[in-house]
Amino acid sequence: MKYSIIILVLLFSSFNVSSKDIDVTKLGAVGDGKTDNTLTIQKAIDECAASGGGTVIIPTGVFVSGTIFLKSNVSLHVNRSAVLKGITKLDSYPGAHFLEKGFIRVDRVENVTIEGDGIIDGSGDQQIFQQGEGGNNRPYLVHVRKSKHVVIKDINLRNGAFWTLRLFENDDVRIDGINIYSHGNWNNDGIDIDSKNVIISNSRIDADDDGICFKSDGKQLCENITVTNCIIGSNCNPIKFGTASHAGFKNITVSNCVVQRASESRNWKWFKEIEGVTDSITGISGIAMEVVNGGIMDQITISNISMVGIQTPIFLRLGSRNNPTGSLKNVLISNVVANSRSLIPSIISAVPGFYIENVIIRDVIVNGIGGGTVAQANKKVPENEKGYPENRMFGNTLPAYGFYIRHAKNISLDNIQFFLKKPDFRPAIVLDDAHKIILRGINAPNPGGNQNLVENKNSDFKVIQ
Questions:
Q1: Residues of the chain with pLDDT under 50
Q2: Which of 98, 225, 337, 362 is packed most tightly, with the most Cβ within 10 A?
């Protein structure tokens, strides 16, 4: 029995000898909100990695730092009463290009965790980072790049100088229970996903720019991703695919999410720019799916979405902004309830000679503002083949109050209900170069005047009640 105990003790000691936990204050870090702790925190990370892995602990206090690089097999734990805060010096965030800059860097490593109930704050509202929309000398808040087996959980991400959480060309990332609030700067996206094998769940995003945004900036497909049980507020597009769409998107599902108004809007005043928008805070498109850089979009499902405070519920765009036209097909959107706050309806639109194909949209309720005029019903819609893809790219109004569908094939609208606060002289649905369209169980107010409920331009469709 004695020998068995000795063996167990030796085994236990052997199991733990390669791991190390370091409280950064033990190496001299100071949580006074003033001291630059960059070198000290990096030293703690390096020591953990050298010992085979462990946890770097940010304890109570406000710990100011520049870029820190996490290493393989290291966890960064930010205590509940701790703040890890970005220093307001541009040269403290190295990188030849903004795509390489970040406050917390996870770069070409494996088995890394960022966790804790504390706060990572990028100081993005400070003047040094105020460079306007597109300013490229700003760091992402958390930048995960070309890494494997990464977990980010239960952390509060605040006040990014640029995008908040950037995932670029990673494999196997799990995000759970995080809380993002980022309204201090332009381009404050919530989560930007350009990776494969990603799970995002149980999180809250409140962002000035896009909320959860799938991107394809390089040659790697953005694929095999699930997003579920999230609350998303955005002044732009709460759920977005694109604009970057070079390789494309495949095998992605988004489910059980709530879209709400952002808590504030410092930069966007849509009610001053877009006819028909009167609310002081709105998002652009609740669901935006865009392929404009020659990539593909295939096998995407979006379901169980409730949205308020958005201008346009659904926006699908296949365009030719910077590259030859790609493809957008095999999309299922179901169980959506939306309050729409503009005169821009849901849009499915490609460019001449190309088609969005094989889309089913079913079980949708849209509460709209109505009020469209005869002139708006007769409006000619520009193609704008190379325009930036957003709902207003064809104008601040469109000649339909429900769906505008152009250059599309094999589209099914099934059990769609529209309700309007004011009478509208525009048709519920406009079809233009749209073929094999199935309209089943459409419940919509008749437009004013002599307008048809469905306007047909060079299209073929079947109505099934």
A1: 1-18
A2: 225
Question: Residue 3 burial (CB < 10 Å; 0-12/13-18/19+)?
Answer: exposed
Give tens-digit pLDDT for 247-261.
Answer: 999 999 999 999 999
